[in-house]
Amino acid sequence: MVEVAADRLGAYGYVLTGSQSEAEELVQDAIVRVFARRTRFEVPAQAEQYVRRTMRTMHIDRMRREALWRRVMPGQAREESRADD
Q1: Count of CA atoms in the C-beta half-sphere (13 A) of 63
Q2: What is the pTM assigned to this prediction?
Q3: According to the model, what pLDDT value does residue 61 have?
Q4: Please, what are the averages of pLDDT over each run of 10 residues along the chain (85 residues)?
């Protein structure tokens, strides 16, 4: 059951990020965040729903931070993208 949920969460993360490595990182970060705050779920499917919601929220927050960074420091954002190439 855990493997099936992990596959579904990974696929959802990939849909959000478009990158396998970013998706894996997003899944791990969301799982840590959810289970650090909540120790038990009444229904196991509830845990997956919480992780999905957390993934979506974390991804949206990251995209907003990146957009803000590009507006505030446009030259810096361009410099970093060139360094990655």
Answers
A1: 11
A2: 0.75
A3: 95
A4: 83 96 96 86 85 96 89 66 44
Q: What pLDDT, on the 0 to 100 scale, is given for residue 77?
A: 55
**Would you give the distance in Å from CA 31 to the centre of its chain?**
10
| Contact status, residue 56 vs residue 23, Cβ threshold 8 Å | no
d(CA 30, CA 53): 9
Tell me how many domains the chain contains.
Answer: 1
Domain with 7 in it: 2-84
Residue 56 C-beta-side C-alpha neighbours within 13 Å: 6
Concatenated DSSP letters of the chain:
-HHHHHHHHHHHHHHHHS-HHHHHHHHHHHHHHHHHH----SSHHHHHHHHHHHHHHHHHHHHHHHHHHHHH-HHHHHHHHHHH-
